[in-house]
Design a protein that fits this description.
Blueprint: H1 2-19, H2 24-41, H3 44-55, H4 59-62, H5 66-71, H6 77-84, H7 86-93, E1 101-105, E2 111-114, H8 127-130, E3 138-139, E4 143-144, E5 151-160, E6 166-175
Antiparallel strand pairs: 1-2, 1-6, 3-5, 4-5, 5-6
Helix pairs in contact: 6-7
């Protein structure tokens, strides 16, 4: 009986997520955005920042865990450093109107730069990082994102070295309403 009382609430909470089916036309628009995201990931500012981070990750970042990340203030100096470094400023200056979030990770899934503090410090072990590290594109399902509060689809692409080897990943969130 308790489950039956919860069904209306669950349908309200999950309804918008279930309602988003990607038509061929919407997927085609998403594919166009994927091409643009790959171009962003190939920018020298992003590639150089990821390569430098891979070569010398600051010690305090190596010790950071998800529980410690979760309690760091979004406007604190440590977190803001990722938005004001060269790659973070580049992301901000090249942000398209259809981008709700963007973050760059190094080869180990640790953050290099972002537009705003993402939910997770490391995406290692998750398809959105692991598939780009294999040279593939990852496309998530439409979902309400915890860090932005926006119903979006995340796309992750590899950041490639000049030799075209994956050295990191770029994840971009696209609001569902921007694809219609």
């Amino acid at each position: 009986m308790k489950i039956l009382r919860l069904l209306p609430l669950l349908s309200v909470l999950a309804g918008p997520l279930w309602a988003v089916e990607l038509s061929p036309a919407v997927q085609a628009r998403l594919d166009e955005k994927i091409t643009e995201i790959k171009t962003l990931a190939a920018s020298p500012a992003i590639v150089e920042a990821v390569a430098a981070h891979n070569a010398s990750t600051p010690g305090e970042q190596l010790l950071l865990t998800q529980p410690k990340w979760k309690v760091l203030p979004s406007q604190g100096a440590f977190v803001l450093g990722f938005t004001t470094n060269t790659a973070g400023l580049w992301l901000k200056s090249h942000r398209a109107e259809w981008v709700s979030e963007a973050f760059v990770s190094d080869a180990h899934g640790l953050k290099v730069a972002f537009l705003a503090k993402p939910t997770y410090w490391s995406h290692a072990g998750k398809p959105k990082h692991d598939l780009p590290m294999q040279g593939q594109v990852w496309q998530g399902a439409a979902e309400l994102d915890a860090s932005t509060g926006i119903e979006q689809i995340q796309i992750a692409v590899p950041v490639l070295s000049p030799a075209q080897k994956p050295i990191g990943s770029l994840v971009v969130g696209i609001p569902v309403d921007k694809l219609k």
